[in-house]
Amino acid sequence: MKNDAVLKASSLLAAAALMMAGCAAPAAPQARPTPAPPVATPTPAQSPTSEAPAATPTPGDIAAAPKLKVLATFSIIADLVQNVAGDKVELFTLVGPGTDSHDYEPTPSDVAKVADVQLIFENGLGFESWLDRLYEAAGSRARRVVLSEGIDPRVFAEAHGEAEHGHTHDADGKEGRKEEGHSHDEEKAGDHAHAHGEFDPHVWQDVRNAIQMVRNIVQALSEVDPANADFYDANAEAYIAQLEALDEEIVGLIEQIPEARRKLVTSHEALGYFADRYGFEMIGAVLGTMSAMASEPSAQDFANLAEAVKAEGVDVIFLENVTNPQAVERLAREAGIRVGPSLFTDALSAPGEPGATYIDMMRYNARALRDALTQ
Predict the structure, then answer these.
(1) How confident is the model over 249-265, as pLDDT tens digits?
(2) Domain count of the chain?
(3) What is the DSSP string of 45-77?
(4) Belongs to which family (predicted)?
(5) Is residue 111 part of a domain?
(6) Cβ atoms 180, 241 nearer than 8 A
(7) What is the CATH number of the domain that holds 140?
Protein backbone atom coordinates (compact mmCIF):
# COMPACT_ATOMS: atom_id res chain seq x y z
CA MET A 1 0.00 0.00 0.00
CA LYS A 2 2.78 2.30 0.89
CA ASN A 3 4.40 1.76 -2.50
CA ASP A 4 1.13 2.43 -4.27
CA ALA A 5 0.77 5.73 -2.46
CA VAL A 6 4.26 6.74 -3.48
CA LEU A 7 3.67 5.92 -7.13
CA LYS A 8 0.42 7.85 -7.13
CA ALA A 9 2.06 10.91 -5.61
CA SER A 10 4.86 10.77 -8.20
CA SER A 11 2.35 10.64 -11.03
CA LEU A 12 0.53 13.70 -9.69
CA LEU A 13 3.78 15.65 -9.41
CA ALA A 14 4.74 14.77 -13.05
CA ALA A 15 1.35 15.90 -14.32
CA ALA A 16 1.62 19.17 -12.43
CA ALA A 17 5.04 19.76 -13.91
CA LEU A 18 3.68 19.26 -17.39
CA MET A 19 0.86 21.70 -16.76
CA MET A 20 3.31 24.26 -15.44
CA ALA A 21 5.36 23.87 -18.61
CA GLY A 22 2.23 24.42 -20.74
CA CYS A 23 1.52 27.72 -18.97
CA ALA A 24 5.10 29.03 -19.49
CA ALA A 25 6.30 31.23 -22.48
CA PRO A 26 5.56 29.54 -25.80
CA ALA A 27 8.36 27.65 -27.44
CA ALA A 28 10.37 29.42 -30.14
CA PRO A 29 8.93 28.67 -33.58
CA GLN A 30 10.81 26.24 -35.70
CA ALA A 31 13.26 28.09 -37.98
CA ARG A 32 12.29 28.07 -41.67
CA PRO A 33 14.96 27.68 -44.31
CA THR A 34 15.98 30.96 -45.94
CA PRO A 35 14.78 30.94 -49.55
CA ALA A 36 17.55 30.96 -52.14
CA PRO A 37 17.87 34.15 -54.19
CA PRO A 38 16.16 33.93 -57.56
CA VAL A 39 18.38 32.85 -60.42
CA ALA A 40 19.08 35.86 -62.64
CA THR A 41 17.81 35.51 -66.19
CA PRO A 42 20.76 36.05 -68.49
CA THR A 43 20.62 39.34 -70.41
CA PRO A 44 21.62 39.43 -74.05
CA ALA A 45 25.06 40.69 -73.02
CA GLN A 46 25.46 37.74 -70.57
CA SER A 47 24.07 35.08 -72.83
CA PRO A 48 26.80 33.02 -74.38
CA THR A 49 24.80 32.79 -77.61
CA SER A 50 24.15 36.58 -78.02
CA GLU A 51 26.41 39.37 -79.26
CA ALA A 52 27.13 42.14 -76.80
CA PRO A 53 25.44 45.45 -77.76
CA ALA A 54 27.78 48.19 -78.94
CA ALA A 55 28.71 50.50 -76.14
CA THR A 56 27.77 54.16 -76.58
CA PRO A 57 31.02 56.00 -77.21
CA THR A 58 31.99 58.53 -74.60
CA PRO A 59 33.42 61.95 -75.50
CA GLY A 60 36.80 60.59 -74.56
CA ASP A 61 36.41 57.67 -76.95
CA ILE A 62 35.41 60.02 -79.77
CA ALA A 63 38.35 62.31 -79.10
CA ALA A 64 40.71 59.34 -79.17
CA ALA A 65 39.31 57.92 -82.43
CA PRO A 66 41.57 58.50 -85.44
CA LYS A 67 40.37 61.27 -87.73
CA LEU A 68 39.32 60.64 -91.29
CA LYS A 69 42.22 61.43 -93.62
CA VAL A 70 41.23 63.42 -96.70
CA LEU A 71 43.12 65.18 -99.46
CA ALA A 72 42.28 68.19 -101.63
CA THR A 73 44.07 68.58 -104.94
CA PHE A 74 44.54 72.37 -104.67
CA SER A 75 43.98 75.30 -102.33
CA ILE A 76 40.50 76.42 -103.42
CA ILE A 77 39.06 72.93 -102.96
CA ALA A 78 40.89 72.62 -99.63
CA ASP A 79 39.12 75.72 -98.33
CA LEU A 80 35.70 74.40 -99.36
CA VAL A 81 36.41 71.06 -97.67
CA GLN A 82 37.69 72.73 -94.50
CA ASN A 83 34.49 74.75 -94.13
CA VAL A 84 32.42 71.56 -94.18
CA ALA A 85 34.69 69.12 -92.35
CA GLY A 86 35.99 71.38 -89.59
CA ASP A 87 38.11 69.54 -87.05
CA LYS A 88 36.65 66.11 -87.83
CA VAL A 89 39.21 65.32 -90.53
CA GLU A 90 42.92 65.50 -91.15
CA LEU A 91 43.17 67.53 -94.35
CA PHE A 92 46.11 67.49 -96.76
CA THR A 93 46.55 69.73 -99.82
CA LEU A 94 48.70 68.87 -102.82
CA VAL A 95 48.94 72.26 -104.57
CA GLY A 96 49.10 75.03 -102.01
CA PRO A 97 48.26 78.75 -102.12
CA GLY A 98 49.81 80.86 -104.85
CA THR A 99 50.78 77.84 -106.94
CA ASP A 100 49.58 76.98 -110.44
CA SER A 101 48.01 73.52 -110.55
CA HIS A 102 48.73 73.25 -114.28
CA ASP A 103 52.47 73.04 -113.62
CA TYR A 104 52.36 70.89 -110.49
CA GLU A 105 54.86 68.05 -110.19
CA PRO A 106 54.32 65.57 -107.32
CA THR A 107 56.98 64.96 -104.71
CA PRO A 108 57.65 61.68 -102.89
CA SER A 109 55.81 63.04 -99.85
CA ASP A 110 52.79 63.76 -102.06
CA VAL A 111 52.81 60.16 -103.26
CA ALA A 112 52.79 59.02 -99.63
CA LYS A 113 49.82 61.31 -98.84
CA VAL A 114 47.79 59.97 -101.74
CA ALA A 115 48.51 56.42 -100.60
CA ASP A 116 47.46 57.13 -97.01
CA VAL A 117 44.19 59.06 -97.30
CA GLN A 118 40.65 57.70 -97.49
CA LEU A 119 39.07 60.45 -99.60
CA ILE A 120 40.46 62.57 -102.43
CA PHE A 121 38.53 65.70 -103.42
CA GLU A 122 39.30 66.79 -106.97
CA ASN A 123 37.84 69.31 -109.39
CA GLY A 124 37.62 67.10 -112.46
CA LEU A 125 37.04 68.26 -116.06
CA GLY A 126 40.72 67.67 -116.74
CA PHE A 127 41.98 70.32 -114.35
CA GLU A 128 44.25 67.88 -112.49
CA SER A 129 45.67 66.19 -115.57
CA TRP A 130 48.40 64.63 -113.42
CA LEU A 131 46.14 63.00 -110.83
CA ASP A 132 45.45 59.67 -112.55
CA ARG A 133 49.16 58.94 -112.83
CA LEU A 134 49.81 60.01 -109.24
CA TYR A 135 46.93 57.89 -107.93
CA GLU A 136 48.21 54.83 -109.77
CA ALA A 137 51.83 55.39 -108.73
CA ALA A 138 50.78 55.65 -105.09
CA GLY A 139 48.75 52.44 -105.25
CA SER A 140 45.99 54.41 -103.57
CA ARG A 141 42.62 52.92 -102.70
CA ALA A 142 41.09 56.23 -101.65
CA ARG A 143 37.65 57.15 -102.88
CA ARG A 144 37.89 59.96 -105.45
CA VAL A 145 35.20 62.63 -105.27
CA VAL A 146 34.82 64.78 -108.40
CA LEU A 147 33.39 68.09 -107.22
CA SER A 148 32.34 69.32 -110.66
CA GLU A 149 29.72 66.57 -110.88
CA GLY A 150 26.23 68.04 -111.16
CA ILE A 151 27.55 71.23 -112.81
CA ASP A 152 26.82 72.02 -116.45
CA PRO A 153 30.31 72.55 -117.91
CA ARG A 154 31.12 75.52 -120.07
CA VAL A 155 32.74 74.85 -123.44
CA PHE A 156 36.04 76.62 -124.02
CA ALA A 157 35.74 79.31 -126.65
CA GLU A 158 38.83 78.02 -128.47
CA ALA A 159 37.79 74.39 -128.40
CA HIS A 160 34.29 75.40 -129.40
CA GLY A 161 35.68 77.45 -132.26
CA GLU A 162 33.99 80.69 -131.32
CA ALA A 163 37.04 82.77 -132.24
CA GLU A 164 38.97 80.59 -134.66
CA HIS A 165 36.10 79.01 -136.55
CA GLY A 166 33.76 81.93 -136.93
CA HIS A 167 30.94 80.87 -134.61
CA THR A 168 28.39 83.41 -133.49
CA HIS A 169 25.71 83.30 -130.78
CA ASP A 170 22.29 84.84 -130.78
CA ALA A 171 20.56 86.38 -127.77
CA ASP A 172 19.48 82.94 -126.58
CA GLY A 173 23.02 81.62 -126.73
CA LYS A 174 22.25 79.38 -129.73
CA GLU A 175 25.17 78.65 -131.96
CA GLY A 176 25.41 79.82 -135.53
CA ARG A 177 28.19 79.55 -138.09
CA LYS A 178 29.51 81.96 -140.63
CA GLU A 179 29.62 80.74 -144.19
CA GLU A 180 33.37 81.14 -144.58
CA GLY A 181 35.38 77.93 -144.63
CA HIS A 182 38.07 76.94 -142.16
CA SER A 183 41.72 77.42 -142.88
CA HIS A 184 44.39 74.93 -141.93
CA ASP A 185 45.83 77.41 -139.44
CA GLU A 186 42.45 77.84 -137.78
CA GLU A 187 41.98 74.11 -137.33
CA LYS A 188 45.50 73.79 -135.96
CA ALA A 189 44.78 76.49 -133.39
CA GLY A 190 41.73 74.61 -132.20
CA ASP A 191 43.61 71.30 -132.03
CA HIS A 192 46.11 72.47 -129.39
CA ALA A 193 43.81 74.94 -127.66
CA HIS A 194 43.83 73.41 -124.25
CA ALA A 195 45.55 70.70 -122.29
CA HIS A 196 42.38 70.21 -120.22
CA GLY A 197 40.12 69.30 -123.13
CA GLU A 198 36.95 70.74 -124.52
CA PHE A 199 35.40 71.92 -121.26
CA ASP A 200 36.41 74.79 -119.01
CA PRO A 201 37.30 73.32 -115.59
CA HIS A 202 37.29 76.63 -113.65
CA VAL A 203 33.76 76.01 -112.36
CA TRP A 204 34.34 77.68 -108.96
CA GLN A 205 34.40 81.12 -110.59
CA ASP A 206 30.59 81.05 -110.45
CA VAL A 207 29.59 81.00 -106.78
CA ARG A 208 26.50 78.94 -107.56
CA ASN A 209 28.82 76.20 -108.80
CA ALA A 210 30.82 76.41 -105.58
CA ILE A 211 27.57 75.70 -103.71
CA GLN A 212 27.13 72.51 -105.73
CA MET A 213 30.72 71.57 -104.94
CA VAL A 214 29.99 71.98 -101.23
CA ARG A 215 26.95 69.70 -101.57
CA ASN A 216 29.17 67.07 -103.19
CA ILE A 217 31.65 67.40 -100.34
CA VAL A 218 29.10 66.95 -97.56
CA GLN A 219 27.55 63.95 -99.29
CA ALA A 220 30.88 62.15 -99.58
CA LEU A 221 31.97 62.94 -96.03
CA SER A 222 28.64 61.79 -94.59
CA GLU A 223 28.76 58.52 -96.50
CA VAL A 224 32.29 57.67 -95.38
CA ASP A 225 31.92 59.04 -91.83
CA PRO A 226 28.21 58.69 -90.89
CA ALA A 227 28.92 59.22 -87.19
CA ASN A 228 29.64 62.88 -87.96
CA ALA A 229 27.03 63.36 -90.68
CA ASP A 230 24.96 65.83 -88.64
CA PHE A 231 28.08 67.91 -87.99
CA TYR A 232 28.93 68.02 -91.69
CA ASP A 233 25.36 68.87 -92.65
CA ALA A 234 25.17 71.75 -90.20
CA ASN A 235 28.49 73.19 -91.36
CA ALA A 236 27.54 72.86 -95.00
CA GLU A 237 24.22 74.62 -94.60
CA ALA A 238 25.82 77.48 -92.68
CA TYR A 239 28.55 77.83 -95.31
CA ILE A 240 26.07 77.67 -98.19
CA ALA A 241 24.16 80.56 -96.60
CA GLN A 242 27.40 82.58 -96.67
CA LEU A 243 27.98 81.65 -100.31
CA GLU A 244 24.47 82.68 -101.30
CA ALA A 245 25.04 86.05 -99.67
CA LEU A 246 28.39 86.33 -101.47
CA ASP A 247 26.76 85.66 -104.84
CA GLU A 248 24.26 88.47 -104.25
CA GLU A 249 27.07 90.78 -103.13
CA ILE A 250 29.04 90.15 -106.32
CA VAL A 251 25.97 90.81 -108.47
CA GLY A 252 25.56 94.15 -106.70
CA LEU A 253 29.23 95.09 -107.16
CA ILE A 254 29.26 94.29 -110.87
CA GLU A 255 26.04 96.23 -111.46
CA GLN A 256 28.03 99.35 -110.52
CA ILE A 257 30.14 98.92 -113.67
CA PRO A 258 28.65 100.48 -116.82
CA GLU A 259 27.47 97.64 -119.04
CA ALA A 260 29.56 98.86 -121.99
CA ARG A 261 32.72 98.44 -119.90
CA ARG A 262 32.05 94.90 -118.72
CA LYS A 263 34.67 93.41 -121.02
CA LEU A 264 37.50 91.18 -119.86
CA VAL A 265 40.99 90.58 -121.17
CA THR A 266 43.02 88.34 -118.85
CA SER A 267 46.17 86.26 -118.69
CA HIS A 268 44.49 82.97 -119.59
CA GLU A 269 40.91 81.88 -119.98
CA ALA A 270 40.00 81.22 -116.36
CA LEU A 271 37.13 83.66 -115.80
CA GLY A 272 34.60 82.30 -118.28
CA TYR A 273 32.16 81.10 -115.62
CA PHE A 274 32.53 84.41 -113.79
CA ALA A 275 31.81 86.31 -117.02
CA ASP A 276 28.76 84.18 -117.83
CA ARG A 277 27.29 84.52 -114.35
CA TYR A 278 27.95 88.19 -113.64
CA GLY A 279 27.45 89.74 -117.07
CA PHE A 280 30.90 90.19 -118.64
CA GLU A 281 32.04 89.63 -122.20
CA MET A 282 35.30 87.73 -122.59
CA ILE A 283 37.31 89.53 -125.26
CA GLY A 284 40.38 87.35 -125.04
CA ALA A 285 43.21 85.89 -123.00
CA VAL A 286 46.89 86.42 -123.64
CA LEU A 287 47.72 82.75 -123.12
CA GLY A 288 44.39 81.39 -124.31
CA THR A 289 43.41 78.34 -122.31
CA MET A 290 46.96 77.20 -121.61
CA SER A 291 48.76 77.33 -118.29
CA ALA A 292 48.98 80.79 -116.80
CA MET A 293 52.76 80.29 -116.60
CA ALA A 294 53.17 79.22 -120.23
CA SER A 295 55.57 80.94 -122.55
CA GLU A 296 54.45 83.89 -124.62
CA PRO A 297 52.26 83.30 -127.67
CA SER A 298 53.46 84.01 -131.19
CA ALA A 299 53.82 87.49 -132.64
CA GLN A 300 50.77 86.86 -134.83
CA ASP A 301 48.69 85.84 -131.81
CA PHE A 302 49.74 89.02 -130.03
CA ALA A 303 48.86 91.14 -133.04
CA ASN A 304 45.42 89.53 -133.38
CA LEU A 305 44.57 90.00 -129.70
CA ALA A 306 45.87 93.58 -129.63
CA GLU A 307 43.64 94.35 -132.63
CA ALA A 308 40.61 92.80 -130.91
CA VAL A 309 41.30 94.75 -127.72
CA LYS A 310 41.46 98.05 -129.61
CA ALA A 311 38.33 97.25 -131.62
CA GLU A 312 36.35 96.53 -128.44
CA GLY A 313 37.50 99.69 -126.72
CA VAL A 314 39.07 97.79 -123.83
CA ASP A 315 41.43 99.94 -121.79
CA VAL A 316 42.62 97.56 -119.07
CA ILE A 317 43.99 94.01 -118.96
CA PHE A 318 43.99 91.94 -115.79
CA LEU A 319 46.82 89.83 -114.42
CA GLU A 320 46.30 86.66 -112.37
CA ASN A 321 47.98 85.62 -109.16
CA VAL A 322 49.51 82.64 -110.97
CA THR A 323 50.53 84.22 -114.22
CA ASN A 324 53.24 85.15 -116.67
CA PRO A 325 53.39 88.95 -116.22
CA GLN A 326 55.73 89.50 -119.17
CA ALA A 327 53.12 88.41 -121.70
CA VAL A 328 50.44 90.62 -120.18
CA GLU A 329 52.74 93.63 -120.01
CA ARG A 330 53.74 93.15 -123.63
CA LEU A 331 50.11 93.09 -124.79
CA ALA A 332 49.38 96.20 -122.74
CA ARG A 333 52.22 98.03 -124.49
CA GLU A 334 51.18 96.91 -127.97
CA ALA A 335 47.52 97.71 -127.44
CA GLY A 336 48.14 100.93 -125.55
CA ILE A 337 46.16 99.88 -122.48
CA ARG A 338 46.94 99.73 -118.79
CA VAL A 339 47.51 96.67 -116.61
CA GLY A 340 44.89 96.26 -113.92
CA PRO A 341 45.17 94.60 -110.52
CA SER A 342 46.04 90.93 -110.21
CA LEU A 343 43.02 88.66 -109.81
CA PHE A 344 42.82 85.31 -108.03
CA THR A 345 41.85 82.57 -110.45
CA ASP A 346 43.38 79.11 -109.94
CA ALA A 347 44.74 79.42 -106.40
CA LEU A 348 44.16 81.22 -103.13
CA SER A 349 46.67 83.65 -101.69
CA ALA A 350 48.84 82.91 -98.69
CA PRO A 351 47.19 83.31 -95.27
CA GLY A 352 46.88 86.94 -94.24
CA GLU A 353 46.66 88.20 -97.84
CA PRO A 354 43.44 89.40 -99.55
CA GLY A 355 42.45 86.09 -101.19
CA ALA A 356 43.28 83.61 -98.46
CA THR A 357 39.81 81.97 -98.52
CA TYR A 358 37.37 81.27 -101.33
CA ILE A 359 34.94 83.93 -100.09
CA ASP A 360 37.72 86.49 -99.71
CA MET A 361 39.06 85.63 -103.16
CA MET A 362 35.74 86.09 -104.95
CA ARG A 363 34.91 89.28 -103.05
CA TYR A 364 38.36 90.71 -103.79
CA ASN A 365 38.06 89.95 -107.53
CA ALA A 366 34.64 91.59 -107.79
CA ARG A 367 35.78 94.71 -105.98
CA ALA A 368 38.99 94.93 -108.01
CA LEU A 369 37.03 94.69 -111.26
CA ARG A 370 34.52 97.26 -110.07
CA ASP A 371 37.25 99.71 -109.07
CA ALA A 372 39.32 99.25 -112.24
CA LEU A 373 36.39 99.50 -114.65
CA THR A 374 34.74 102.53 -113.08
CA GLN A 375 37.82 104.78 -113.19
Answers:
(1) 999 999 999 999 999 99
(2) 1
(3) TT-TTSPPPPPPPPHHHHHHSPPEEEEEEEHHH
(4) Belongs to the bacterial solute-binding protein 9 family.
(5) yes
(6) no
(7) 3.40.50.1980
